[in-house]
Amino acid sequence: GSRLPNYRYCKNHRMCRGKPHAVGAGNPKGCRGKITLKSPTTSFVSSCLSCRAPTAKGISGTSITNLNAAFEKVSRQGQMVQQCASYACYVGSRRAIGAGHILGSVGRLYSAAGTGAAVILWAALLAPFAVLLTRISPASLASALGTPGALGPLETSIAASGLSLAILVVVGTPFGWMLAREWLPAPRVWEVGVLVPLLMPPLVIGLLLVFLLGPQTPLGEFLGHLHLSGSNTFFALVVAECYEAGPYYVLGTQAAFRGIDHRLEQTAAMLGDSPARTARRVSLPLAAPGLAAALTTAWARAMGAFGAVIIIAYHPYGLPLQIWTTLSETGLASALPYAMVLVVVALPLPVIAYFWSARAANRH
């Protein structure tokens, strides 16, 4: 290429083989692809892509970026930078910058696509609830629930779910604590035992409960001596709801206790607190948001239990069975008021507990 202002070329570039040379010096053997960038105080050597390596004055640094600065400086002075072998450094760096811009564009495109997919999925998940709101009017709701005995299934569901949750709190909270601390032998085996009823189809659970608690079974005969029946009774309804909601509560409790910083409990113990006092003053307050989320999730699951209930406890009617029988007898429209009641009773508490748990996690 032609000479550039403030640049000098190797005198014999064909003999360059990799060694640096100073400004104005002869080109030694072995100087290939090297360039000396000289400032008033310091000289630096950096790599070039060509044996035709110009030496520059007034540019300091050791990277390709400094070559960019050199060529851009010449361009700003209005002088032509001609295509020569040493200019490949400039072109190569520009290609790298262009690749970075391409990757950034791809990342932004991927982010936009992910956001669009999330919006579509979110809308699809909430679409049934939106349909419920648009299909029912306050007048039809008041008319359906104003008939005598219409709220009886609601009372049954609330009573059975409340009793189920009380049993789960008493039995499931210590169980979740021990699973979180891995105090039980073979903890993975215990966790699998909790997961099995969670993953099993509810209809199968109900069918198996009939063979476990039915009047003709040994356990059913024992319950008969206690004046209890495991089929079509309020007791059977509570048992079915415990089986359907229990795994949610135990696993949620385990996660809540596992999220506690053990060092805080150890510090309380070192300060002289007993295990019971440590649990009451440290562990339970820290786990409270997670426990609330687990409890309210179990509440929603117990209120909506249907698969096991329809087999083992067809009577007395709860809200899910009331929706099913109304749907079977009078059609879809007449079942919507009971569906709305079930959603209003079961849904708000888990949502509130979720926001409380998320806010507590962000605060910590």
Question: What is this structure, in a nutshell?
Answer:
The chain is mainly alpha-helical and 364 residues long. Helix content is 66%, strand content 4%.
Written description of the protein model:
- With 364 residues, the protein is mainly alpha-helical.
- Helix content is 66%, strand content 4%.
- It contains 14 helices and 4 strands.
- The protein has helices at 64-76, 88-135, 138-145, 152-181, 187-199, 202-213, 218-225, 234-258, 262-270, 275-303, 309-312, 319-330, 332-346, 348-363, and strands spanning 7-8, 34-38, 43-47, 55-57.
- A hairpin with a 4-residue loop joins strand 2 (34-38) and strand 3 (43-47).
- It is globular and about 60 Å long.
Instruction: Give me the number of helical elements.
Output: 14
Major sheet attributes: 4 strands, mixed
Kindly report the oligomeric state of this protein: single chain
- SS content category: mainly alpha
Task: Indicate the proportion of strand residues.
Answer: under 5%
Keywords:
364 residues; mainly alpha; 4 strands; globular; disordered N terminus
Q: Secondary-structure blueprint of this entry?
A:
Blueprint: E1 7-8, E2 34-38, E3 43-47, E4 55-57, H1 64-76, H2 88-135, H3 138-145, H4 152-181, H5 187-199, H6 202-213, H7 218-225, H8 234-258, H9 262-270, H10 275-303, H11 309-312, H12 319-330, H13 332-346, H14 348-363
Parallel strand pairs: 2-4
Antiparallel strand pairs: 1-4, 2-3
Helix pairs in contact: 1-2, 3-13, 4-8, 4-10, 4-12, 5-8, 8-10, 9-10, 10-14, 12-13
